[in-house]
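Researcher: Here's the sequence for the chain we discussed earlier.
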Amino acid sequence: MEDVVISGGDTYQLPAKNLRLIGDALLDIPHIKRMRFATKGPAIMPMKILTDHDWVDALTHVVERGRTLGKDVVLHTHFNSPNEITWITENAIRVLFERGIVVRNQSVLIRGVNDTPEVMQLLTQRLSYINVHPYYVYMHDMVRGVEDLRTTVQTACDIEKFVRGSTAGFNTPLFICDAPGGGGKRDVHSYEYYDRENGIAVYSAPSVKPGQFFMYFDPIDQLSPAAQHRWESPLVQEEMIAEALARAGGKSYVVA
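Model: Thanks. This is the structure I predict for it:
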């Protein structure tokens, strides 16, 4: 293991001494080469960076010590809407930028929030303006209770096509499907097969789990009435999944 994400909560809430303690302890491990402190804090409480000098000093210490050891230490954050970026945000990120702290952003594609090409383009541009790298845009996880927030794979592909070229390549986020079942992060357009009518995308992960296939399903309410009707039948569901898998070149898939 070379990469470590410090999360499991929000590192924004860690006391400065604990942030420094954790960072130093991880830097002392020879095989750890890269560290990411994960927090949504800059998107919802940027004023902390402007007022909690001890916390910022602790993060700066870990970043600078990592640099002397040839180890990459960065801050990963979570802006989903361009409306989350204010003049306070800009001032806060400027503090980190002046200290040489790299900040990357990981968004989630959310229906009604950022699922149009224009809004995602604006988010990408505004992040770039404040020196936050637009790193990932994830497809929403298939979890209970959030079906109304999910979008289709086709929506993600269309938005990616629109955003790409509107800003510098290094400031263009990767649109990602975290393949259910352990397939890892796959470019959303890199599916082996996509049944757009019935909302079934099949992914593979040759370097992670060779020979296995992973499926992502579009939210049913975003499909045509005929497709929604097909999903009501368990037997037809099995047939649609089997056909998509066969077209992808597989015989079975990993269940999340």
